[in-house]
Design brief:
By secondary structure, this protein is mainly alpha-helical. It has 2 domains: 6-198 and 313-342, Rossmann fold (3-Layer(aba) Sandwich); 217-308, Tyrosyl-Transfer RNA Synthetase. Helix content is 54%, strand content 6%. It has helices at 19-32, 44-47, 54-71, 88-99, 102-106, 109-115, 124-139, 152-168, 170-176, 227-235, 255-267, 272-279, 284-310, 313-342; strands spanning 6-11, 37-42, 79-82, 144-146, 190-192. Strands 1-2-3 form a 3-stranded parallel sheet. It has a two-stranded parallel sheet with strand order 4-5. Helix 4 packs across helix 14 (313-342), helix 7 packs across helix 8 and helix 11 (255-267) packs across helix 13. The longest helix is centred in the C-terminal third of the chain and has 30 residues, at 313-342. It is globular, with a radius of gyration of 21 Å. The structure holds tryptophanyl-5'AMP (TYM). The site of tryptophanyl-5'AMP has 26 residues, from strand 1, helix 1 and helix 7.
Length: 346
């Protein structure tokens, strides 16, 4: 037995989805449906590592599901579900809490950023967050995980957890007959971090990542912004005064220009070099309106579709339930082996 190609990725329902989530992740999920078995998860259990109002969490969960569908993910082809429906995520995360080391968690830059100076007062869940993320991925023995650049360290940790589990339990894995040809139970997952949009930056400051937590609404384009707002935010984006360079190397040291060219490239499925071949030498007075028009042409129809779907929450909930059942069947098959490997009696 070897691992069959399977893609898993997750998005937190914690506040507004933005252009970085779309270009760094959701848009890239769509074509993978045609080449891989694909599982896309709304990670509501990750979201509550920081406080979420229950009603806001429900709304945000449906919003992420609506974004998946509006972006072109087909809930029949892919599995779309919210994490908490499949209780095995929590079960495997506990086992991984006992495999991973506290030192590994303390080294996570995302934890350090979120906890700040207050690391004694944040939730225990925030520290253990990467262990749950490893459980998300490995429950499905996913071989590839498309994410933005900021998740790279978490995926390295997932590989470390898989390797340590495979190693610690090697004898038991062999006895259960659940190993692949190399004696592994869990695959060593490959991150898929590629393309021009792995790290979309703030529209106000090209050195800061576009993020849900930035206090300035002008720093990001929300997937629920309408055409007018999208266009205004792009036209107001901070830039340096120089025109666009004549080759892609000329973007080095110009974070705002690099970011806007990257956004154009990702929205039009081109490389940055192709965008520069078209717009090299152009001033912002030409490039920004072109980018605004492109962004509106891609995002406005998606925005309309998201709103249409959100008007009918029962249909979204039914899709999530159906996905949860399909995901649950795969998850339970993995957990049957895991319980056996670990030595739990059932
Ligand atoms: P989250 O919810 O913060 O972000 C969801 C996805 O969007 C990507 N992303 C970006 N990409 C480019 N530029 C940006 N400015 C930007 N901001 C966010 C993220 O890299 C991510 O791919 N821990 C994860 C959720 C998660 C997960 C998983 C992902 C839980 N379990 C299993 C993959 C596999 C997170 O907080 O993503």
């Amino acid at each position: 037995m070897n691992f069959s190609p399977r893609v898993f990725s997750g998005i937190q329902p914690s506040g507004d989805l933005h252009l970085g989530n779309y270009l760094g992740a959701i848009r890239r999920f769509v074509p993978l449906q045609h080449t891989h078995e694909t599982i896309y998860c709304v990670v509501d259990m990750h979201a509550i590592t920081v406080w979420q109002e229950p009603d806001a969490l429900r709304r945000a969960t449906r919003e992420v599901a609506a974004a998946f569908i509006a972006a072109g993910i087909d809930p029949k082809k892919s599995i779309i579900f919210n994490q908490s429906q499949v209780v095995q995520h929590a079960e495997l995360a506990w086992i991984f809490n006992c495999v991973a080391r506290i030192g590994w968690m303390n080294r996570m830059t995302q934890f350090k950023d979120k906890a700040g100076k207050n690391s004694e007062a944040v939730s225990l869940g925030l520290l253990a967050y990467p262990s749950l993320m490893a459980a998300d991925i490995l429950l499905y023995k996913a071989t590839e995980v498309p994410v933005g650049d900021d998740q790279k360290q978490h995926l390295e940790l997932t590989r470390d957890i898989a390797a340590k589990f495979n190693n610690d339990y090697a004898k038991s894995i062999a006895e259960t007959g659940a190993a692949n040809v190399d004696g592994e139970f869990f695959p060593i997952t490959e991150p898929l971090i590629a393309g021009p949009a792995t790290r979309i930056m703030s529209l106000r400051d090209g050195t800061k990542k576009m993020s849900k937590s930035d206090p300035s609404d002008q720093s990001r384009i929300s997937l629920l912004d309408d055409a007018d707002v999208i266009s205004k935010k792009i036209k107001k984006a901070t830039t340096d005064p120089a025109e666009l360079p004549s080759d892609v190397e000329g973007l080095a040291g110009r974070p705002e220009a690099d970011n806007l060219v990257g956004i154009y490239a990702a929205l039009s499925d081109k490389t940055k070099a192709e965008v520069i071949a078209e717009y090299g030498g152009a001033g912002w007075g030409k490039f920004k309106p072109a980018l605004a028009e492109l962004a509106v042409s891609v995002l406005a129809p998606m925005n309309n579709e998201m709103r249409r779907l959100l008007d009918d929450p029962a249909t979204i909930d039914a899709i999530l339930r159906d996905g949860g059942e399909r995901a649950g069947a795969i998850a339970e098959a993995t957990m049957k082996d895991v319980r056996n490997i670990v030595g739990f009696i059932r």
